[in-house]
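Ligand-bound model needed. flavin-adenine dinucleotide.
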Amino acid sequence: MKHRVIIIGAGAGGLSMAIILAKCGFSVRVIEKNRFPGGMMRSYIRKGITCHTGIHYLGALAKGQILRRFFDWLGITADISLERMGKKGIIDRYIFNDFLFDLPEGADAYESNLRSVFPREQKQIDGIMAMLKPAVEKISSPDFLFAEHRYAASPEDFRPVGEILDELGCSPGLKAVLSVPSCWIGVPPDQCPAFYHNTALASYLLSSWRLKENMQMADVFANRLISLGGELICGDGAAAILAENREVKGLRLLSGRELAAPLLIGAVHPKVILSMLPAKEVRPLYRKRISRLKDTHSIFALHATVDASRHDEIPYNIFKMDSCEKGEISDLKYYQLRKSSVPDKLLFSILTSGRPEHWQKWEKTQSGRRGKDYTEAKEKMAKQLIAESESILGPLYDCRLLDTYTPLSIRDRVSSPGGAAYGIMRSCDQLLAASMLNRTAVKGLFLAGQNVMAPGILGTVMGSFHTAGYIMGAERFRKEIAEDL
Ligand SMILES: Cc1cc2nc3c(=O)[nH]c(=O)nc-3n(C[C@H](O)[C@H](O)[C@H](O)COP(=O)(O)OP(=O)(O)OC[C@H]3O[C@@H](n4cnc5c(N)ncnc54)[C@H](O)[C@@H]3O)c2cc1C
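Prediction:
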């Protein structure tokens, strides 16, 4: 008998969850509030140019690597056009005020770059590599997904990476280099559990990839779901979860339509799910736990074009750190200059922290109705960022702004509280509160998406496999999924 399941949210989390369950014989329906599926994974088009939102690069996608195995199992690999980064020895270039560091492909190459940039810190680098190499090994195989303690195995894994680096006696420069990955995923190093930092860094060291210029990964996920017989309802969001005696009965949509289902998966922020549950169906402790969770920072981003005849594509990412006193990074700018879907233009993108205080004035306004002064404020910030970037990249010829988005845009587009780019902050101080979020206190209600395990496409898809394990039970999960992964 087919199990009926409804999934709220058609982002990378909801769609991968839906594909997994559809492949395992469930009758799946995905509900998406926006007109098109994809959430943050969805790219949009301005003046004929595809602008990526929540995918700038992906790690661990070479044959046999972890994200590739997930994509192979989902049956989407062949439809995703990618290009491998790092061909010229650089995936990321970190620019600090007084030195440069290039992150290459491979843990050995990374170690050798660390040793040549920080020649006086060989002992510290021994310590760093002793912590990093097992993480690279671990995520090279999906076995860790099914292990009891998953990616964290020793007490050391739960300590803040910043504390470990201080204990090793790293200089501020070396600490700052190691701090970039954790800042990028929204957790300051002094709060970032070592296993979390190491796994994120390891995934990019294994291999890093960019989407091809025109790639719309959201449609690949959605089409795969439909080819498996899944249903996707867009443009009508979930308004309320129907539950009785702490058991799920179905869902009411914004249009008023009611859908019955014994199994419901919320692939949106847990605080959004909480707000949809009838008050009496939620245990006070669960409410307290979810509503108190801190979220990650948001992002301000811009896309612009430059003249392709006067610029070369930069085949790696650039991270510019504002300052790194005592090895702590206060803010970073991310630059990408790459081929676009229009031959005579390159696409120039900048991402930086969202500075919520900057957009507070428009907090209560709705997308598309924020007024002229909001547009002017965005353009002013974009101009400043572009001018600042020229001090690093040199003059940008015929630079024309295509689009900007702010924390408010992210908040409204995907209902992420405060526009949090990476959802719940997986910091040491809320490790316990943020763990095991796949399950809830309501029977038949599960969670998926970036909030249940880790953010990024890898973390989000991994979270879907996990939730599937809870729904299907260990034995069935092993037979129908794990043995083929
Ligand atoms: C600017 C930015 C850059 C990023 N860069 C990268 C990167 O380079 N590499 C990487 O791996 N990751 C990156 N990420 C992170 C990555 O995009 C996310 O981790 C991932 O897309 C999250 O997927 P999700 O399904 O959990 O959430 P979402 O994409 O937020 O999906 C949730 C979906 O639920 C829908 N929804 C919300 N409320 C309702 C409702 N009531 N009813 C119905 N539907 C609803 C939303 O509209 C949305 O479609 C980036 C994120 C941002 C913001």
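The pocket of flavin-adenine dinucleotide is lined by residues 8-14, 31-34, 39-41, 53-58, 237-238, 267-268, 272, 299, 301, 351, 410, 414-416, 421-422, 449-450, 455-457, 460 (CB under 6 Å).
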